[in-house]
Amino acid sequence: MSTHGRPQQEGARSDSPRPGTVAAAGEFGLIRTLTRGRTQPSTTLLGPGDDAAVVAASDGRVVATTDVLVQGVHFRLDWSDPEHIGRKAVAVNLADLAAMGAVPTSVLVGIACPPETETTMLAALTDGMWAEAERARAGIIGGDVVGADQLVLSVTALGDLGGRPPVTRSGARPGDVLAICGRLGWAAAGLAVLGRGFRSPVGVVNAQRYPEPAYQAGPAAAIAGATSMIDVSDGLLADLGHLAAASEVGLDVQTARLTVDQRLVDVGTALGADPLRWVLTGGEDHALAATFPSYADLPEGWVQIGTVLLPDTGVTVDGMPYEGDSGWEHWR
Ligand SMILES: Nc1ncnc2c1ncn2[C@@H]1O[C@H](COP(=O)(O)OP(=O)(O)OP(=O)(O)O)[C@@H](O)[C@H]1O
Ligand SMILES: Cc1ncc(C[n+]2csc(CCOP(=O)(O)O)c2C)c(N)n1
Ligand SMILES: [Mg+2]
Ligand SMILES: [Mg+2]
Ligand SMILES: [Mg+2]
How far, in Å, is the centroid of ligand 5 from the Cα of 234? Predict the structure, then answer.
């Protein structure tokens, strides 16, 4: 029987990290260290731990989220046009709003860059940011520009819940249906192609350059009664792991329900890679994953990929634990 095993992540360190460093803590251990033991003001309706926070103002609520993108880590200037990078930086944030069931309203953009950076490059990048924001009927309302050794983009997005409660990571219940909306594995396939020096097939390469999240699918899922939701940034299994932990449930993914597009199969064959591994553990497509009560009708574009199980079984694939990395983790 297959264990869906995967080799060690490319570039992964074989030596163990020095104790006390972020590499030793791990990305999520670090976040725990930085967030625990803090008392939030009463205006914080939902604090750290989800795709976005919810804050109260005396005349309403705002959903807020932020993500940082670093040259060489999240994008390369020789792999992407500036417009692509701008689109990606905004899209990854708007996907977090959608994963709460919110509609984007506004974007704030921090840009750090070296002195030799071409102004025209940043103008083109900003065109991409505006194009992506406008796709979601949002605008760029402010930001900051500072000097740095490499290009760093810090984007904050604000959204509107339309009077509904946020859809958190913690509401999945045993018996719910696990579903996704959007593509999986495409950006990872594109990363493999670009990493080997190729620029085609353009479908997967463009998927790595910028995601095209179905923003309206988040609010639609909320209206349809979604019990929990997350966007897939690090990898399906990794992000479902956050949802399972927050909800204290098991999640079983049935691979027969997953689409492995023929284009991914072809790229996998050409590169000697397993396309199912891209689908299960590749990040950056920003599909939405959500759970729905079994009696709910799934909104348009959503497809069942598994089921929610009784507590504490973690994430399984066809009923078995997954061997190998479940997705991207910084410093691993
Ligand atoms: N330095 C920090 N201080 C407070 N909260 C943080 C910090 N870094 C991350 N968080 C919070 O930790 C949670 C998990 O962050 P994470 O970045 O994994 O989520 P995400 O943005 O949905 O995923 P991704 O960054 O992969 O797109 C979020 O609620 C985030 O706001
Ligand atoms: C040059 C280059 N090298 C590697 C990758 C792959 N990558 C980087 S960050 C990430 C997960 C999401 O990031 P975050 O968790 O910060 O949102 C992935 C899959 C890339 N896109 N570009
Ligand atoms: Mg997210
Ligand atoms: Mg983040
Ligand atoms: Mg991440």
Answer: 5
pLDDT, one tens digit per residue, over 61-120 is 999 999 999 999 999 999 999 999 999 999 999 999 999 999 999 999 999 999 999 999
328 alpha carbon, closest ligand: 2
- Per-residue confidence (pLDDT) for residue 3, from 0 to 100: 36
Please indicate, yes or no, if residue 20 is contained in any of the structural domains.
Answer: no
- pLDDT, the chain, mean: 95
- Per the domain annotation, does 35 fall within a domain? no
- Whether 244 is in a domain gets the answer yes
ipTM of the complex: 0.99
Q: How far is the CA of 184 from the centre of ligand 3 (A)?
A: 15
Ligand 1 pocket residue status of 17, Cβ below 6 Å: no
Task: Report the SS3 class of residue 140.
Answer: strand
Q: Are residues 152 and 221 in the same domain?
A: no
- Does residue 88 line the site of ligand 2, with CB under 6 A? no
Domain assignment present for 62: yes
Tokens 């003001």 belong to: 41
Q: Which helix (H) or strand (E) element contains residue 46?
A: strand 44-46
Residue 51 in marked binding region: yes
Q: Is the dihedral of CA 160, 163, 164, 168 positive or negative?
A: positive
70/196 same-domain check: no
